[in-house]
Design a protein that fits this description.
15 strands; single chain; binds zinc ion; 284 residues; alpha+beta; 2 domains; six-stranded mixed β-sheet; 32% strand; Nucleoside Triphosphate Pyrophosphohydrolase; globular
């Protein structure tokens, strides 16, 4: 389906936590100041030579794996680092469209590894300094032996449809006027489908049935794995809590409210899929 991202084998990126003896030719480096990526003023990823030339010193680096045979690394820069003219730091959200899709996805992987490494230097149970595992992507406490993996928070996102209408809602933190499909985090002990049923009911008072998996997307803001579903309306009237959701409604494809434009996020893929099936493909 055109609105879903296709996947081909082999995938271009092969992850690994074991660094090679040498970085090899044209290594790729994702350098971060907190969650912001070092980019050129044209919002492109600088080469390792360009980064070396401005004399930046990383606090910590991690090996990520290989992209088409090129070794990839992440680096954590000091919080007070300043860069010279021609470079800047940018939030990954602002780099959709300027970094290519594969590089953007890799930068999303890199920022989560940098954040995990930065925030797991000490054991949460006994405060002992942790050590990096040689066998997998984890740090562990030499005293408690508690392994600490990068955090990943599964979340569900769902397009609920009633005949030829889609359920869209407005969260108070969306830009003015924008509506989108419903989303929420999966709770401990819950299946993704149970999270769909619970979240849709909690946020809109609507009961759903016939939940079908759609697609998934890594969403590094800050560490989600978005699991996308489509579901059918079963029963109930829309009732919003006014806190998490301030407005919700059923919309036909030919009378949509404003929604996030583009096709970078799974919310957009879901809405696009609904519009295409209902004869109103949105402009790119
Ligand atoms: Zn410990």
């Amino acid at each position: 389906m055109s609105s879903r991202r296709s996947h081909s084998f082999p995938l271009p990126f092969v992850p690994s936590h074991k660094p090679p003896p040498e970085p090899g030719e044209r290594p790729i480096l994702f350098a971060f100041r907190r969650r912001e990526l070092l980019v050129s003023s044209e919002l492109a990823l600088p080469s390792v030579e360009e980064i070396d030339a401005i004399g930046l010193e990383a606090l910590r680096t991690q090996y990520l794996g290989q992209l088409d045979g090129r070794h990839c690394y992440s680096a954590e820069l000091p919080e007070d680092v300043e860069v010279s003219a021609g470079f800047r730091f940018a939030d990954l959200r602002t780099l959709f469209g300027s970094l290519d899709e594969t590089m953007h996805a890799l930068a999303g992987r890199a920022v989560q590894i940098v954040e995990w490494d930065r925030t797991h230097q000490f054991c949460g149970a006994c405060a002992e300094p942790t050590v990096l595992s040689e066998t997998d992507r984890s740090r562990s406490c030499p005293k408690c032996r508690i392994p600490m993996y990068p955090r990943l928070a599964p979340a569900m996102i769902v397009a609920v449809e009633k005949g030829d209408q889609i359920l869209l809602a407005r969260s108070p933190h969306f830009p003015a006027g924008i509506m989108s499909v419903l989303a929420g985090f999966v709770e401990p002990g819950e299946s993704a489908e149970e999270a769909v049923i619970r979240e849709v009911f909690e946020e809109t008072g609507i009961c759903v049935r016939n939940i079908r998996y759609f697609s998934s997307q890594a969403w590094p803001f800050p560490n989600s794995l978005m699991l996308g579903f489509q579901a059918e309306y079963d029963s109930g009237e829309i009732e919003v809590d006014g806190v998490e959701i301030e407005e919700a409604g059923w919309y036909p494809a030919d009378d949509m409210p404003a929604f996030f434009p583009g096709r970078v996020s799974i919310a957009q893929w879901l809405i696009r899929d609904f519009l295409v099936r209902n004869g109103h493909p949105p402009p790119d």
